[in-house]
Design goal:
Structural class: mainly alpha
Radius of gyration: 29 Å
Order of helices and strands: HHHHH
Shape: elongated
Helix content: 40-55%
Number of strands: 0
Number of domains: 3
């Protein structure tokens, strides 16, 4: 069975050139290779994403099953996923966004107070229009901050 020397893809008898690499095929099976090596032209296919508390264990089990069948397998996400096992990075991001929305009024109020302080800002202090817009914005972010946590709980982070 011929194979491509560059991407190590096997082809049916009678094929003479790899359509992806444009390399002449070599006879026989490709040499044994490390499934974790980055071969040029190798195409990765996402089979499954694990998001539970046992995600790392499930992914390793799936990798072992695939490799015992001779199927090369690479596990993605070897950075943060290994440092925080069982933590879904998307859910962590959702929590960060929600709690930053809760913290926003606490950072905005001091800015609004300083912008209205004529002894500090002198002629650059807020005028009446800027004050109205500033307080409208403050009420909007206060509403969002108060609603964020109950909505997170009620919707199960948007899952239901």
């Amino acid at each position: 069975m011929p194979h491509c020397p560059q991407c190590m893809t096997e082809y049916a008898e009678g094929a003479v050139e790899c359509p992806d690499c444009r390399q002449a095929l070599q006879p026989g099976l490709p040499p044994e290779h490390d499934p974790h090596s980055k071969r040029p032209g190798a195409k990765l296919v996402r089979l499954r994403t694990f998001n539970s508390r046992t995600a790392r264990l499930d992914a390793n089990l799936a990798r072992n099953i695939l490799e015992t069948q001779g199927i090369p397998c690479v596990l993605a996400g070897g950075t943060m996923a290994e440092m925080l096992p069982g933590v879904d990075p998307v859910q962590l991001t959702e929590f960060a966004v929600i709690f930053s929305a809760v913290a926003l009024p606490f950072t905005y109020v001091p800015i609004l107070l300083v912008a209205n302080d004529r002894s500090y800002m002198r002629e650059y202090g807020n005028g009446p229009v800027a004050n109205v817009l500033g307080f409208v914005y403050l009420f909007v972010i206060l509403f969002i901050a108060v609603a964020a946590v109950p909505l997170m709980v009620l919707t199960n982070l948007g899952q239901s």
